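Issue 218. Parser rejects a valid record. Input:
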Amino acid sequence: MSTARSDTATDSPPPDEAGPTGGQQKRPPVFRRLAIPEGLRPYRAPLLLYGVTKLVGLAVFAWLLEWADDFHKKEPRFGGGAHWWDVLGTWDGWWYLQVAEKGYDPKPLQPLGPGGLFTVKQDSVAFFPLYPGLIRGVSEITGLGLFGSGILISVLASFVAAAGIYAVVSTLAGVRAGTIAAGLWAVVPGAGVEWAVYSESLFVAIAAWCCYCVMKRRWVAAGLLAFLAGLNRPTSAALIGAVGLAAIVTLARRETRREHGVAGPVYAMIAAPLGLLTYVTWVGLAMGDLTAYFTLQREGWAHYFDYGAYTLDVLGNIAVGHNDYLFAFSTPDLIAVQIVLALPFLIALMLRKKPPLVLVAYTLASIVTVLGTQQMFGNTGRYLLPAFPLLLAPAAALGRLKWPSLTVFFTTAALASGWYAHYVIFELGIP
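Output the parser choked on:
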């Protein structure tokens, strides 16, 4: 009896596989939800906040462009195009796309006729190779085309940057502050270039994670990231110097030297400046003058370090209602004045949080570089995008608010950013 029952049990299908007449049915397929890796789960909220906020700002920007309808009247290279999104690939974006398409063709500096603003002809070697190189590579792989590849890289890099900002700020001030900091980076003045054919998003992605690696004493990774930053923008000098200073202090202190060793900090110090030095040297050799890159910036683009003389000139003119200064654009310049006036408070609040040395050195060097250089004053917000540690104190303060209040804040800021962070710099100035 027991054997018969055993055979019957073995031959009978499970209840959920038996049909009404005793026949077998196939078990329905089981679909499992895609699981987010454990290490990525903390980044869901900050990236969602960043992405939604950016989309709102971009939508307002698109609406303003179509409503004003001025971009149709401009040259495609200088802020125009057939569609509103074409504006995102103009100005500096045009140069990056030229490099991605044609590469570099460095020639000796070509003097221009007297009487103009520029004394030498502009050359694409002023634009560093990492970003356009990635554009070309992605275009070849995906078939998106150069413009689409540039936008794709910038958007993806902006999310990596937001994640890096979250990682740094959450380490110092908590998860809530880190999430808010990622959202704030989406609405700061100048944020319009984060999803354009500009290299800012890629640079901030590298810089944020480089600083995070230094904070965690991952010196090899920090050195490699600083090296890459040097191939992306000349302002990487601030990051390179901060990494080097942090490494020197680590080596100078006996307890940190014993804890972290010597090889890692020394490697970071050596590797960090190589990208920047290699490119600037290559430009100099290719153009027959080792100082060619700096001469080109000064005489071909009117950008050079003047110890703050230009900034003071602009502030003085705006204070008395004059516009007798280079690169005068009234609306962007007024916003830039407010940013400059806010900087001392933001710096003081940041220092009260006692952030690590690498963040302090990097932020202060970035600010000195921006305010001490003659360049388009109305783009001060854009030039300060890499100074993300300034968001530390505001994010921590906003973290004390409840989410309903934060929702109102970010909704308002996102809508407004479509104007002040996007439209103003692309249509009322030169980004």
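Fixed in the parser; the record now loads. Residues 1-23 have pLDDT under 50 and may be disordered.
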